[in-house]
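ABC transporter ATP-binding protein
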Amino acid sequence: MIEVTDLHKEFNGVPVLKGISTSFEKGKTSMIIGQSGSGKTVFLKCLLGLFVPEKGIICFDGRKHTELSIKQQRQLRKEIGMVFQGGALYDSLTVEENIMFPLKMFTNNKPSEMLHRVNAVLKRVNLENVNKKFPAELSGGMQKRVAIARAIVMNPKYLFCDEPNSGLDPITATVIDNLIQEITKEYQMITIINSHDMNSVMEIGEKIIFLKNGIKAWEGTNKDIFKTENETVVDFVYSSNLFKKVREAYLNETK
Ligand SMILES: Nc1ncnc2c1ncn2[C@@H]1O[C@H](COP(=O)(O)OP(=O)(O)OP(=O)(O)O)[C@@H](O)[C@H]1O
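Predicted structure tokens:
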């Protein structure tokens, strides 16, 4: 479990995260939602160790981030897979080299072992025969799969994804969502996804955290979100007519 307690982060005296407390469970896809600028990326970067919070505790399966030695921090970093916004693949490296990158950096595995692992994760994300291709030769959805394959190549305990669906058509976005959820269950990872995509939230948001101006304004599941009367959540999530209608239909069905 990842437990976050009273997390505060500010930049040049301007508070961005204002005392967030929550927790994330193994085998579940949790989603952070909220308007642009609400603090989602900063929150994820605090968890990743890229930003140091001014106050608060982040505890990874009993390991408090404030109490870890440099060696333990490095170990923890190895246990986190990250899918960056836009994929963040290295354009000048092939698919195989991109996915092998963390293995070369963090392990002393033999090249044949590394290649075996690369092929295994490529197969898992349903990509084959693309080892020697460069990212620019792949579609957006394929690039996202490569980014996911790279994120899971070290067999992580924790998977963080920043807008994994950005730039994808709705069908490909759903395929990527389902892939992330399946892998989360299979590897029993703690998966946290920043998202703007309400389809994803409804589809795979086993836990949803709604941030507003750096405060946790609401927390619940994708079932709860249909029923909530919380005005800020309703205004944000149901700003589109389509989702309003879906919600009305759901509420009528469950009356
Ligand atoms: N390195 C930084 N230095 C100063 N301010 C920052 C830094 N990173 C983020 N911020 C500020 O923190 C606030 C929250 O930003 P953040 O990127 O977390 O928002 P977000 O919810 O992820 O938005 P989006 O949905 O647009 O990605 C913004 O006001 C942003 O300007």
